[in-house]
Amino acid sequence: MKQQNQWILLMSTSIVSFMSTIDASIVNIAIPKMSRDLNILNNQAEWIVSVYLVLICVLLIFFGKLSDQIGRVRIFQTGTIIFVLGSLFCGLSVNLPMILGARVIQALGASMTMATNFSIITDIFPPNKHGLALGVNSSFVQIGNIAGPGVGGLILTWFNWHFIFFVNVPIGIIAYILGHHFFPHAPLPHKRLKIDFLGFTTYAGMVTAFFLMIFWGQVIGFGDLRIMGLLTVTGILLILFVMVEHRVPEPLIDLRIFHNLGFSFGILSAMLVYACGYFNNVIMPFYLQDRLLLSSAVAGIILMAVPILNIFSAPTGGYIADRIGAEKVSFYALFIFLIPEVIFIMIQPQWSLAWLVIGLALFGTANGAFQNNPMIMGNAAPEFQGIAGSIAALGRNLGMAIGLALATSLLYFGISLQGGKRITTYPDAHPDWFVGGMHFAYQIALGMILVAISLLGIVLYHKRKKTA
């Protein structure tokens, strides 16, 4: 494939990655307006966010497995069209059932593209450029993860909430046309599809129970017996899933993929990093607007330090990873994470804003330099590339969900420790309690980064032993 075509295809897959990722968070800022326009309660409007995220995680592995059988490009391009149609239907929705149905269609398409984009990139680029190409794609994905509220706010400034979805339509069509013109077209394989329905059923039940536990636990508390029951159900379904996968001839996930330490620890470390990233999304807007009393515009500009630095550090980290290895680059990047986490643990309202900007900028630099996608894909054998990309995307979404739950729960637990009683809202009468709660949450985030450093340290140690 011509080098020019490779980069055009990379832009096509990255644009779709950005759209499908940003749609997990962009709706949050429009929830109040949507609830008023659709005449529904705020907690009902939250279903519009939740159904998208949960369904993507349920379907990711299925489409990764299917793409290995009928072709990754075919699944990706079909997913792009379905996502565009779902976006159009979301924008045309006038009631809750309509928009929930449209979000299901949108999630179906997004899961198809997320399950295949990494493996397509590793297919079209030579191995010595995987780091750079996946780094560029990672920039789009990371920006999609954190730019949703900002982009949504800008759209809502001039247009109504329908345009949050309509904007995907022309961009998605252009990405599809580029892909249709430049992607290699392989014939449909003439072989019987082998789908592990029992494995998929137990997996889907496990993921659904896990997310229900996460979302409901934030409302009623994670110590509630009902949440403990959901945790038990999740654990039982996980055990059943592993038992099924060991027994069926064509499993949904060939569990041998996890025998590679670099792959397994790469997934775990990536989940920890994504979870820590969500601490900023949840806690920093409160600190900037409620504690420092900054306007939403100024707060938005300060928070842009993360994606701006991420844009430059992700492809740079990928370029270096192609030369010294993704594990080494990611290992070094994790040490950079320690600096902003320490700043966030120690920062006080009377400190200069420059410290906060420095912390966020360093976080963005480390976030981009952390080469989770090249690390994960590079440790998966060629026959596992399709499913490896799906598992990488699943790890990202699970990490974000875990980070959301942890950040919220730890923040209010820390505030409660400060106040000596259970507190679940911002303590307007005692703003310093919030600062104490924030410091407590970031102490846990620091611990999570140290765990990730240990995991990748073990991977590098075993690699060194093999080559010695």
From TrEMBL:
It is found in: Cell membrane. The keyword Membrane applies. One of its GO terms (cellular component) is plasma membrane. Gene3D superfamilies: MFS general substrate transporter like domains, Multidrug resistance protein D. Its main location: membrane. InterPro entries: MFS, MFS_dom, MFS_trans_sf. Keywords: Membrane, Transmembrane, Transmembrane helix, Transport. Pfam families: MFS_1. The chain crosses the membrane at residues 7-27, 47-63, 75-94, 100-120, 132-155, 161-183, 195-219, 225-245, 257-280, 292-317, 329-347, 353-370, 398-420, 440-461. Residues 9-466 form the Major facilitator superfamily (MFS) profile domain. GO terms for molecular function: transmembrane transporter activity. It is a multi-pass membrane protein. Signal peptide: none annotated. This is MFS transporter.
